[in-house]
Amino acid sequence: MRVGVIGASGYTGVELIRLLCRHPGVTLSVVTSRQYAGRPVASIFPILKGQTGLKFENPALDELFGMADFFFTAVPHQTAMGIVPKLLAAQKKVVDLSADFRIRDAAVYEEWYQTHTAREYLAEAVYGLPEIYRTKISKARLIANPGCYPTSVILALAPLLRSRMIDPESIIVDSKSGASGAGRSATVGTLFCEVTEGFKAYKVAEHRHTPEMEQEISLLSGRQVRISFTPHLLPISRGILSTIYAGLTRELGHKEVSDLYCQAYAKESFVRLYDEGELPATQFVRGSNYCDIGFKIDKRTNRIIILSAIDNIGKGAAGQAIQNMNLVAGLEEDMGLGIVPLFP
Amino acid sequence: MRVGVIGASGYTGVELIRLLCRHPGVTLSVVTSRQYAGRPVASIFPILKGQTGLKFENPALDELFGMADFFFTAVPHQTAMGIVPKLLAAQKKVVDLSADFRIRDAAVYEEWYQTHTAREYLAEAVYGLPEIYRTKISKARLIANPGCYPTSVILALAPLLRSRMIDPESIIVDSKSGASGAGRSATVGTLFCEVTEGFKAYKVAEHRHTPEMEQEISLLSGRQVRISFTPHLLPISRGILSTIYAGLTRELGHKEVSDLYCQAYAKESFVRLYDEGELPATQFVRGSNYCDIGFKIDKRTNRIIILSAIDNIGKGAAGQAIQNMNLVAGLEEDMGLGIVPLFP
Amino acid sequence: MRVGVIGASGYTGVELIRLLCRHPGVTLSVVTSRQYAGRPVASIFPILKGQTGLKFENPALDELFGMADFFFTAVPHQTAMGIVPKLLAAQKKVVDLSADFRIRDAAVYEEWYQTHTAREYLAEAVYGLPEIYRTKISKARLIANPGCYPTSVILALAPLLRSRMIDPESIIVDSKSGASGAGRSATVGTLFCEVTEGFKAYKVAEHRHTPEMEQEISLLSGRQVRISFTPHLLPISRGILSTIYAGLTRELGHKEVSDLYCQAYAKESFVRLYDEGELPATQFVRGSNYCDIGFKIDKRTNRIIILSAIDNIGKGAAGQAIQNMNLVAGLEEDMGLGIVPLFP
Amino acid sequence: MRVGVIGASGYTGVELIRLLCRHPGVTLSVVTSRQYAGRPVASIFPILKGQTGLKFENPALDELFGMADFFFTAVPHQTAMGIVPKLLAAQKKVVDLSADFRIRDAAVYEEWYQTHTAREYLAEAVYGLPEIYRTKISKARLIANPGCYPTSVILALAPLLRSRMIDPESIIVDSKSGASGAGRSATVGTLFCEVTEGFKAYKVAEHRHTPEMEQEISLLSGRQVRISFTPHLLPISRGILSTIYAGLTRELGHKEVSDLYCQAYAKESFVRLYDEGELPATQFVRGSNYCDIGFKIDKRTNRIIILSAIDNIGKGAAGQAIQNMNLVAGLEEDMGLGIVPLFP
To answer: Which domains can be identified in chain D, with CATH numbers?
Structure first.
């Protein structure tokens, strides 16, 4: 199977290339970039020297159709909704890494983003969280790859919500992300000197991943839920740690909750559960497709505090996209993703 | 006035020296360290070359009494309770930077720390948060310098609690601290390679600053309160950002809350309030004695999210200690503390 | 004396403001920025909240003349040569932080930069390294503030060159600078993710500070000298460490060389000499106007290796500019510059 | 083939485990650590959760012999010389990552280290730089894995030395290493707060890798050579960049030198050559076994400046050790080492 990456010059794009150029089940046949068209990928991203001879291209869409069978669209939201329908019309399968097909309710999408011009695909698109929608994904032709923050949060909450162990209205999500989440565009706010030795919150109570989390949390809870969500910018490249607070609906011990998580995730390749007393950290998942989950029950306040760590470019973007591709293509789900995290 | 620093070889100690060696109202006359006794301070901390000719000393306590009029004790908890009573007995005034005299209720202290052997001083000790206890501090001879996390949290919450705008039982504190908060002892966990490019929570729902915050929050609320508190380790040297969540007791607009903060802090030298749309960050207070506060009202969930930033070694330790000393000594409260933060 | 900063929105500009807003001998009366005109300085740089009520302005040049008596021009090279002559014509004194007036030989300037349109001022401009040109500076009306790398290198070499202890043709300068040296413009190359956890050389053997160093080294040596110079980009905000290699002209012991340095710099406020076995580091000068110098004699190869550390924004730019202003204005040379470095 | 790692709790140890647990040609059967004996490797290094069920062990040496066929000794120098002879006597093959068997001349070893108690193995040990000693390595039973700095330097210089293009006496090596090179022992000097936002030289002209480089440079030059070597500590975890200066013996253009490097390394899996105008950087080799080399000819001074980048734990330690093991065991040289560097 030939695969292509549309919009491959950002951090997610180069991670897709990094993973796909060694993927044993597919051939990376085309990577596009307007900015770098004609230049060898390895000259822009020297990590890829000796790994790929591909050049960035900027073909017309029609031409592009013939260059691969399966596409990743790693373009900004709003751009994606222009491209994806054409790819589908050309009988291609697509994992879209933008936000355009994640929100099922077009009105909600339009409240947080802008006008949606491809609403007719929203019902068909499958939210690409394999641990929750595996079967649907394997039959889909359009996968909406989840946002980085929602991935870390929904995986952490799903077993608790399904079992009604927590009050969904009490959920508070305090997330911290590395700077790669802000992309590779040149902006003053993400310059080294602005980020290093610093830490700040941004888009407090108004980040666009909020409705995406609320959608999935509501589905898992069986009722409409609103949550509080605060993202922060960490002075690291890669990694998200979400600290999630929720009120317990009854007194629970560590073992009871732990058993629930094991039941949900013991067979999963990419969810790792931490024992009592252990806590996940971004540096333990760096470069990998893992989502690491640990928790603590605070008997004093009858709350549970869940810690969930992912690599925002890995499980939070490119890794999960390839996991979805594997499912769609009928390959082993973990093919090409067996990377041990890098530490230190 | 001659001042001495007992236990001056840690990060708080060197910050005290950095500030005191240029303080126009006092003379730094003695700094102690068992480990470095006899060595010039500037040979251990080259930032102080050309600033001070002092050597670390390790005098017997009796000898020490004659060497200064006012003391900072920057030693671990439990050690402090052995030294402070002797200093007081020798008619010295003391700002103690340990936890030993912060908790008024010895039983609570003993639940979170260990046996208290100087309980008789707990009633006398004044909690050294000048913005709240200024008058008491100015008359005290023993100041319990607040913990770094509690400083950032209590200043952020005080106006809201006093005005009953928030439900104290709903308070969730998610704090992030730079690595200097862990001290200058050699441990694997604070090695560069373990901390950089990483982020983790620690002591979730069991950090010792919890009872200290609960004590002050309870006093401000007029009732016993328990909170959730999660500290995290940031890959930066200096700085704490606390993200604080609380349920509003009624619908409130930004202006109403903003006015309340202004009323509380407009005259304070070291509290800076952020306008709507602005958010504090650790890099904006680095090296200073400021506490920067901003907030956002989330109408969707009827919660307020408050962001509070300090330099954990500055307002969170040494800076605040000197602010307290100034008050006790009848000096201008901001003397020697007029440092503009360092950015970038 | 009213002072103005032209081009105040970069890292050097904000450092000038940081230092000038607390300078006891002058009043900062105007700061210009095209980009931020009309906005309070403290809203762009929150470190300055509570320190200054100034707004960025963008006055016409004629209008600007009336707003201050002394100017710092912190604009790019080529821009400076358009502004400085007009300021001088208006009877203002100027410290220019660009490269435009550093090179005495216009032909050399034009070889490394571009056409010079204000050549007639080159003879008059004084190279603003106070430790070498103090007397001239105090009588000048136009000071060419040295480049950051040259400052660290020339101070380190001057005593050795004057005494003919080293062979100037053998000089190799390997310098490493923090990212603030690249300025505050948004470029992909200085994004956090591109710089952190990385290290690279750039402009090897072709950096524009080369002729500036060669000019001063040649003057100190009494003959034309060419050197090798390699700059590198460090994943830190502030600081330059230059490692300088030179062949000794005869066998020398540490003490002999050390005495020479003491003789040259013992009375200097801003040069700190390190004892045998000690080595300077960027973290020991952060935020200050110090240049720290240490060295090692390698008897095995008969070379000397000199280490020289400055804060590139401090002694390498804004700090030195104020030191120059103090000299020109007849103020104490160290006025407003008595900042203890920040560590950690 | 069963392989064991003796001394597996440091950064090199965990990297060996990371690479070996997914190596398709060998089975990692035992990892030793006194400190962590009995504890699961994945509980100490959570990156390995889900990758290995191994526990750290601390068996007696006799017992250890039966547990693997091939050993990596990742213990400090001096300790290695006690263990290695016993492993060899037990018919095991060994890659020793300490310095104990790198220096052929025991007198030189003893001048820089301490007494050597296993001199009889020095003649037999092969210096494990496959690009230079491939054939010898494949027949050896004891490989002395090179030091990290020497790896970066010798690979960069070998073609130039063999072709007599440079004057070996003029070689100056200015190297910069990430903090993992200092190991995982708890020391104040490698605490996060001491290293971050800083940069310093250490062991100037007296680092123990000097004689190792001189040995190989002398062999390549055909005469005894002494070099200048200055190591520096970078605020990054992984990576070495060596900037190497040498006088050219005649006028040379970029192409001529480039052809020489191509001739030497075009067939090598782990040496990547940079085109004119490109420069290696530590962030482009992170996590990999690559050595990236670029250079610039400075016609003004008739010197060449070579830049050489490796991951100090990869090609500088564990990666190269496995490359050596592959050669000794008759496996494909790059087996288990096909890791794309991690960026950002």
So the answer is: 2-124 (3.40.50.720), 149-312 (3.30.360.10)
